[in-house]
Write a structure and sequence with these properties.
297 residues, alpha/beta, Rossmann fold, 9 strands, 38% helix, 19% strand
């Protein structure tokens, strides 16, 4: 039986399902006959990043948030026994949605969630009802900044020398920086977030896992044109809620969505990469209004 905890009056279930022999952990809440929101987390987080958003939305929506292999409470097999690529993570999440009979859903994508979610959306556009994009990139403009220079070098040459600077992203200072850089009030950011993430990064074998995914991230930008074509062709209703002070995915990556999406609601928030930590209530209210207007009226 799953463990069930009530938050803000809403029951949140903590479950595990087997996909390709791996235990895929997920959080679930809300009525199953309500519109579904599939929450796809970023690096180096997990469904833990949605711990407050889920109960805030669960009164009206069916909310599901999985952890990818190598993250959170999901299995983290070694790089020798599991292919860590964005193609494979997307395949795992596709199978996950099918196992849970999630035939229609809106996508919340952040960071790594964007290349995973957009693979799903472009493959199965009939399943995706809407998009909530929070610092999730689909345009070259979003990668045109200093943060990406060492990663681009690694994509060109997967050497130990090029891996060395990337390993700094896997240490506690790098994890804390992702949560605190660009925020208005550092005292509003719970240290539980980066301590939780760092515990996962520090597991034996996880450095190798993350380096594989850093390298695989280079396979995403060649797919940007196909994702942009998906936006133009299928025109999913889209809510952009973007931390504009993000040094990883700055607002330059948010702006181009306006080129391809017609039914778009656009908000730049005065915060950083993990915008939910500082503006979770604002984002929850915007999502509630957006999805209610598009799918419940």
């Amino acid at each position: 039986m799953p463990t069930i905890k009530k938050q803000n009056g809403q029951a949140v279930s903590y479950r595990t399902i087997k996909i390709e022999g791996q235990n895929i952990f997920y959080r679930e809440a809300g009525p199953k006959d309500a519109p579904t929101i599939l929450l796809l987390h970023g690096f180096p987080s997990s469904s833990h990043m949605f711990r407050n958003l889920i109960p805030a939305l669960a009164a009206k929506f069916h909310v599901v948030a999985p952890d990818y292999p190598g993250f959170g409470q999901t299995s983290a097999p070694s790089v020798d026994s599991f292919e860590y690529s964005f193609d494979h993570l997307a395949a795992i999440i596709e199978q996950f949605t099918e196992a849970l009979n999630l035939n229609k859903y809106s996508l919340y994508v952040q960071d790594y969630g964007a290349p995973i979610g957009y693979r799903l959306a472009s493959k199965h556009p009939e399943r995706v009802q809407g998009l909530v994009v929070q610092n999730g990139n689909a345009y070259e403009e979003g990668l045109d900044n200093d943060f990406w220079k060492p990663l681009k070098a690694y994509w060109q040459d997967k050497s130990e020398a090029n891996a060395a600077p990337l390993k700094e992203f896997l240490k506690i200072d790098g994890t804390k920086w992702q949560y605190t850089n660009g925020v208005r009030n550092i005292e509003a950011i719970s240290p539980d977030a980066w301590v939780h993430d760092q515990a996962g990064l520090d597991r034996p074998g996880n450095e190798a896992i993350q380096l594989e995914l850093f390298y695989s991230y280079g396979t995403n930008s060649p797919l940007y044109p196909s994702w942009q074509k998906y936006f133009r062709t299928h025109q999913p209703p889209a809510l952009i809620v973007w931390g504009k002070n993000d040094a990883i995915f700055p607002a330059a990556g948010a702006e181009p969505y306006k080129r391809d999406l017609k039914n778009i609601e656009y908000h730049l928030l005065d915060t950083g990469h993990f915008a939910l930590e500082e503006d979770g209530t604002v984002i929850a209210d915007l999502i509630d209004a957006f999805l209610t207007r598009n799918f419940l009226n």
